[in-house]
Amino acid sequence: MKKGGGKKPVDEGVKVVATNRRARFDYAIEDAWEAGLSLVGSEVKSLREGNVNLSDAYAQPRGDELYLVNCRIGEYKQAAHFGHEPLRDRKLLMKRAELDRIRGKVEQRGYTLIPLRLYFKEGWAKVEIGLAKGRSHEDRRDVIAERESKREIDRAMSRGRRR
């Protein structure tokens, strides 16, 4: 898939820093958006080193803004005098129309915003947030069973092609 008149692929210039691998297992992701991150200099340097943890993070609307809460960006060792607080709330940058649409969906019962991955796109720090609904223990079992059966079918198909 291409953008901008077919000149360059969408994923060109994207460097993934961290992914939340548990998110798609623990939650049913219904929709996803891209948001910018408001960071200080030492946080950007730390992100470039890959010193980030998204496992317990979530996004939360406050007033007219959206914040990334509980995302740990480790301290940057070479920061001279002023480092940053590793667990501070970080403002997410999105257009007003998208924020309003997201806020309306989050206010519905059972939905939350989970960061799926954090990456640099053309030099700018971005986070992909997903509208998620928590899965119960039985739902997780169903997902595992479905994945295993798909894997078994793929194995049988590849064995059939070899003969």
From TrEMBL:
The keyword RNA-binding applies. It is found in: Cytoplasm. PROSITE patterns: SSRP. It holds the Pfam family SmpB. Required for rescue of stalled ribosomes mediated by trans-translation. Binds to transfer-messenger RNA (tmRNA), required for stable association of tmRNA with ribosomes. tmRNA and SmpB together mimic tRNA shape, replacing the anticodon stem-loop with SmpB. tmRNA is encoded by the ssrA gene; the 2 termini fold to resemble tRNA(Ala) and it encodes a 'tag peptide', a short internal open reading frame. During trans-translation Ala-aminoacylated tmRNA acts like a tRNA, entering the A-site of stalled ribosomes, displacing the stalled mRNA. This is SsrA-binding protein. It comes from Anaeromyxobacter oryzae. The gene is smpB. Keywords: Cytoplasm, RNA-binding.
